[in-house]
Amino acid sequence: MHIDDDVALQTPVCDVLGIRYPVLQAGMAVAGNGRLAAAVADAGGLGTIGSMPGGVPRDQQMDAVRRETRLARSLTDGVISVNIPMAYGLGDQLLEIAIEEGAQAVSVTAGSPTRLAPLAHQHGLRVLGVVGSLSQAYKALDSGVDVLVVEGTEAGGLNHPDCLSILALLPKIANEVSLPLVAAGGFADGRGLAAALMLGAHAVQMGTRFLASDECHIHSNSKQAIVDAGPDGTFLLWEGRHYPSRALSTPYTKHLLEQERAETPVEQRVRSADAQMDGNLEAGMLTVGTSSYLIDDVRPAGEIVRAVVREAVQILGAAAAYTHP
Ligand SMILES: Cc1cc2nc3c(=O)[nH]c(=O)nc-3n(C[C@H](O)[C@H](O)[C@H](O)COP(=O)(O)O)c2cc1C
Q1: Whole domain around residue 254: which residue ranges?
Q2: Which residues line ligand 1 (CB under 6 A)?
Q3: Which end of the chain has fewer CB atoms at under 10 Å, N or C?
């Protein structure tokens, strides 16, 4: 394990998950491969296997999740999890893989963790629930999750229909729910981690930042597009609908937005996995967060973890001095 012995930042999320640093790699269905999860876990964070690594066809999906989880497990003793989107009805199979392949946690999203949480606990796995509203947070609390991931509208990928900024959502939930909290959506650096801790979280979860890492298996064009993204780099598609989604601004996603505004039905399957893996952004949608504006390079994932923690520790130390005039 590669660690910085001189940097210490331990929070309740670290204690519950057994990780050294309060940095989580987000569940990303297609992009969450074993090498990436292992690199983050090996650096002391939590690495997460996506539910459809590489965007394989449905009949190969579970094999791909098993293969990538096994790979991650073989590369590190660190803490890894498997992402379980409940909406696809594959929760039991994904949990079974997590248990059999030695993951220490699962993150449950797009649906209720109520049924799976006790099963996961029986096998000694920690359960993270992903929420985008206070009402979802109460439900997740009742379902027995160990850690709550609070996702603001800055996040890449599917958003909660309320589309609330993490700046308002996180303190609201922190005031009401006493569980270890993780902030997600728009975080890419140590400033973000320090701010998240001040807003009531005990860790950050980052997706887009880890897309632009050496170990993530998405196409280099897609990584470069994140680095190149400017202030208007992302927008929300399908705002006000059940599943709004934040995506990189490209000719293809602008076309989808025009269709949405004209209220013409989307005539084609939305090509998301394709854009990530083949890098053809003219013809596919790349879901990324507003954090893309902060990302200037493609780096090893472990370096990202260490840089984020180091910067946060410096900032927190400097801020403490404000209270001693
Ligand atoms: C490419 C991509 C795919 C994602 N897929 C999933 C997913 O399958 N399951 C899930 O729970 N969240 C998914 N998300 C959301 C992330 O888990 C995370 O909360 C989000 O990336 C945080 O915002 P950030 O991208 O600004 O860091 C995805 C995000 C991205 C960028």
Answers
A1: 228-291
A2: 26-29, 31, 50-51, 83, 85, 109, 130, 151, 154-157, 184-187, 205-209, 287-289, 291
A3: C
